[in-house]
């Protein structure tokens, strides 16, 4: 790559290098590329994915965590992982499964009384409006133990788990109807819908498939189990599903993979499932109408009640014209409805084709009651050929689909060929293909399964990584590959090892559609979203005893837990309600007690509860588990568990020498002086804040309230110090004065943050010219050498216009042609000092004028 090109690429990509530095040291980039064996293409890929510090991602991806039972959150294009959300599996960092509020959620996922602490998550889905994604709630299914979880994207916490009352395994969940009316969950392996024993001989008579419609109560953010119902289906193994939209609104589609109803028996010498279940050339695509079914579910004569749940019968559905079958190439995999709802695309898996059904044709056949026959359960079967738009040969193992922003463009994963194929489902033409590494399952384009796909990037969810990463033992990470799909040819950008389960599927959403909270309203139970009845404010800390039940109401704020001693008897049932009193974002405290297997994460404003039976005698430190301040290690206390049946010797007196009265007095004077000096800093900040009317800026006001809150605690503590001193208890006075200092430090900490924010808020608004100037300044890469307000690899530009006589003209001429000034005394001294020359950035006259306006603005606001 030549030098000019490298400068151009680097500048366009906004890498940390600037044009000036890259050009001045272009050989460095060349050298790095050479040393690391990087091609020009690699550098381009890096430029498309690299996020400089502080820069945020355009898309947020929610990935199933597979067997980890969690959900993973990462960003595109950076592929940086942001969070693992505990869903079906305990997640210690978030206290999920270790505090009482979250244990209640996990407990609601118990099946037939059995607590299940893992899950096999497959398909995440977002709430939708008109088929477009809305960043309010996320749903995910558990294939192993048929369950659906709701995650509130207000705080990215799991708030509900519902257990499927009739299925014994599932796969086709979660799929959302276009206005989030229902969360659809389709079964996988057919089984009796009741919980009893049935022999395999009863397969056709008693084993059943099903699809469940979970009613989503949007205002409550909860699945309404009572309002939910299911549809009985034949014991064909139902599989992936998708809800219709647009033209096909009201309908939904589910694949199947064992319409042979083969029952296996390899151990008896029978052919295995894999042979018997793929015997026929075709399986069935289930086509059903949830709008008709929800009406049927209102009338007792249409449904059976199983485990307290309404199951609309096959017969009732058939009679009402709500259920049909269409043959599909055998053992298919994904089924995806196109953004406009017109077509349904099915990945062949064992067939090299993708099959495109035309809903218009399907609807036409249904309306005319033109059926090719019925299946053994009496369900009308439509003619496959008459339902088709067509088929396209894609390659080996087509699985899943995702759509492009451009009409008619679809991307399909090929598992066996390890490829993504880009093709046109309207004109049935293959357009491009790209190799992935290796054995791709799902793929996702940005918002790719919504009614308004954004395209731009595709993510390949590769099952095998084989040789792509440094080996970490026989269990390999999976590989999520980011692919640029904006151009005619797909281009591979990035490989991300996935260290968490087998993430079958992801769903992506524009980051701007997510509006998560940064703190909680004081006293929130995050799992209910409501105020906790156990919220404890400052001054309300207490320990209540009721027989063997000890209830502690505790608070946490930098940097103490109140109370600091909890004394109980062996065998007591101890409940500790904790409230984090912080209001500043990212000031999380954690809580644990040695030995008792509990942990809570208390984000600002949260109230959470831990509970344990103190069945071991002893002394157990408890502490804050988040490094929350310089005095985080001091944020602790002791749980003292006494055996009520034992007699303890009286306390042993300390034999350590104490300080002399003179030394004590000296220490006292020192702490008084420190406090006075600290208070002066606080007063100067407070004066600044008041002068500048901080109360007009909500964000700043929040911080000031927080700071004054801390400051307000000082008089009480100071009074204690003075009283101790008066009584001659100098040691006590010193300790209280230290506490005064603690409050001052916290006040100063938050106060200074408020001051910085305020300074930013009240900076005079930039004129359009100055704003353009800033843009030119940044585009030109001037910030590579000049940092405003600071000497960096070039001089600070604050006041530059005042440094020279006729400053504006001087700066203009200098930017225009720096070389002319290289022998100027002042410039020469600068060149010597920084060991760098100001390069000619070839700015236009207008750009230079704008930059001068920008520099003026900098000077006006220099005092901030
Ligand atoms: S399934 Cu795993 S690759 Cu569960 Cu969506 Cu296709
Ligand atoms: Cu609070 Cu560490």
Could you characterize the architecture of this molecule?
- The model is unreliable at 1-24 (pLDDT under 50).
- Helices cover 26% and strands 31% of the residues.
- It has 4 domains: 59-86 and 119-513, YVTN repeat-like/Quinoprotein amine dehydrogenase (Methylamine Dehydrogenase, Chain H), CATH 2.130.10.10; 524-642, Cupredoxins -  blue copper proteins (Immunoglobulin-like), CATH 2.60.40; 651-756; 768-861, Orthogonal Bundle (Cytochrome Bc1 Complex, Chain D, domain 2).
- The protein is of the alpha+beta class and 864 residues long.
- Strands 8, 9, 10, 11, 12, 16 and 17 form a 7-stranded mixed beta sheet that branches. Strands 36, 37, 38, 40 and 43 form a 5-stranded mixed beta sheet that branches. A 5-stranded mixed beta sheet has the order 39-45-44-41-42, with no helix packed on it.
- The relative contact order is 0.07.
- Bound molecules: [4Cu:2S] cluster (CUK) and dinuclear copper ion.
- [4Cu:2S] cluster is lined by residues 122-123, 171, 240, 333, 399-400, 441-442, 504-505.
């Amino acid at each position: 790559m030549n030098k000019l090109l490298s400068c151009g690429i680097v500048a366009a990509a906004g890498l940390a290098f600037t044009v000036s530095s890259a050009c001045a040291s272009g050989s460095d980039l060349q050298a790095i590329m050479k040393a690391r064996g990087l091609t020009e293409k690699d550098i381009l890929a890096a430029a498309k994915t690299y996020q400089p510090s502080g820069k945020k991602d355009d898309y947020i991806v929610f990935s199933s965590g597979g067997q980890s039972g969690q959900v993973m959150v990462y960003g595109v294009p950076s592929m940086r992982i942001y969070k693992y959300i505990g869903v079906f599996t305990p997640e210690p960092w978030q206290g999920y499964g270790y505090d009482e509020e979250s244990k209640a959620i996990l407990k609601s996922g118990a099946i037939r009384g059995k607590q299940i602490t893992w899950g096999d998550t497959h398909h995440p889905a977002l709430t939708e409006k008109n088929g477009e994604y809305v960043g309010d709630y996320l749903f995910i299914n558990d294939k192993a133990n048929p369950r659906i979880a709701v995650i509130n994207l207000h705080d990215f916490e799991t708030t509900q788990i519902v257990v499927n009352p009739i299925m014994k395994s599932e796969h086709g969940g979660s799929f959302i109807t276009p206005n989030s009316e229902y969360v659809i969950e389709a079964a996988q392996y057919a089984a009796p819908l009741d919980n009893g024993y049935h022999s395999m001989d009863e397969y056709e008579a008693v084993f059943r498939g099903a699809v469940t419609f979970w009613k989503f109560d949007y205002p409550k953010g909860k699945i309404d189990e009572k309002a939910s119902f299911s549809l009985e289906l034949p014991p064909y193994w139902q599989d992936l599903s998708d809800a219709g939209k647009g033209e096909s609104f009201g309908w939904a589609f589910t694949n199947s993979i064992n319409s042979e109803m083969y029952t296996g028996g390899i151990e008896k010498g029978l052919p295995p499932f894999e042979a018997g279940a793929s015997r026929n050339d075709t399986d069935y695509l289930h086509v059903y109408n949830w709008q008709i079914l929800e009406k049927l579910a209102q009338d007792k004569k249409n449904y059976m009640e199983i485990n307290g749940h309404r199951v609309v019968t096959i017969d009732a559905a058939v009679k009402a014209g709500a259920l049909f079958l269409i043959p599909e190439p055998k053992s298919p995999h994904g089924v995806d409805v196109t953004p406009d709802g017109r077509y349904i695309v099915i990945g062949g898996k064992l067939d090299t084709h993708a099959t495109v059904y035309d809903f218009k044709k399907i609807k036409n056949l249904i309306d005319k009651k033109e059926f090719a026959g019925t299946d053994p359960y009496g369900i009308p079967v439509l003619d496959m050929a008459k339902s088709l738009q067509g088929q396209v040969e894609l390659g080996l193992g087509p699985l899943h689909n995702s759509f492009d922003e451009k009409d008619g463009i679809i991307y399909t994963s090929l598992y066996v060929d390890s490829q993504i194929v880009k093709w046109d489902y309207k004109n049935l033409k293959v357009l491009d293909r790209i190799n992935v590494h290796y054995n791709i399952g799902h793929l996702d384009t940005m918002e790719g399964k919504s009614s308004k796909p954004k395209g731009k990037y595709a993510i390949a969810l590769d099952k095998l990584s084989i040789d792509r990463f440094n080996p970490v033992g026989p269990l390999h990470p999976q590989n999520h590959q980011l692919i640029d799909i904006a151009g005619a040819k797909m281009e591979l950008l990035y490989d991300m090892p996935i260290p968490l389960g087998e993430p079958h599927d992801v769903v992506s959403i524009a980051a701007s559609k997510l509006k998560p909270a940064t703190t909680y309203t004081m006293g929130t139970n995050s799992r209910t979203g409501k105020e906790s009845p156990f919220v404890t404010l400052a001054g309300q800390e207490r320990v209540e005893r009721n027989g063997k039940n000890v209830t502690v109401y505790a608070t946490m704020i930098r940097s103490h837990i109140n109370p600091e001693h909890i004394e109980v008897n062996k065998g007591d049932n101890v409940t500790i309600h904790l409230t984090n009193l912080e209001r500043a974002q990212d000031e999380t405290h954690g809580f644990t007690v040695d030995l008792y297997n509990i942990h809570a994460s208390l984000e600002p404003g949260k109230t959470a509860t831990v509970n344990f039976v103190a069945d071991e005698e002893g002394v157990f430190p408890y502490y804050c588990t988040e490094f929350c301040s310089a005095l985080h290690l001091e944020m602790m206390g002791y749980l003292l568990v006494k055996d009520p049946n034992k007699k303890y010797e009286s306390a042993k007196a300390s034999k350590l020498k104490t300080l002399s009265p003179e030394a004590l007095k000296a220490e006292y004077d020192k702490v008084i002086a420190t406090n006075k000096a600290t208070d002066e800093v606080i007063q100067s900040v407070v004066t600044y804040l008041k002068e500048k009317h901080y109360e007009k800026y909500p964000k700043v006001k929040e911080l000031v309230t927080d700071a004054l809150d801390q400051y307000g605690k000082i008089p009480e503590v100071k009074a204690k110090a003075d009283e101790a001193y008066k009584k001659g208890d100098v040691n006590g006075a010193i300790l209280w004065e230290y506490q005064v200092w603690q409050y001052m430090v916290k006040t100063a900490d938050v106060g200074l943050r408020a001051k910085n924010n305020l300074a930013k808020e009240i900076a005079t608004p930039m004129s359009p010219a100055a704003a353009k100037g800033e843009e030119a300044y940044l585009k030109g890469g001037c910030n590579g050498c000049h940092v405003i307000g600071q000497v960096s690899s070039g001089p600070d530009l604050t006041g530059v216009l005042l440094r020279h006589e006729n400053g504006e003209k001087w700066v203009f001429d200098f930017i225009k042609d720096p070389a002319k000034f290289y022998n100027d005394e002042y410039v020469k001294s600068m060149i010597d000092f920084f060991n760098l020359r100001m390069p000619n950035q070839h700015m236009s006259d207008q750009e230079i004028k704008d930059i001068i306006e920008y520099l003026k603005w900098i000077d006006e606001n220099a005092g901030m």
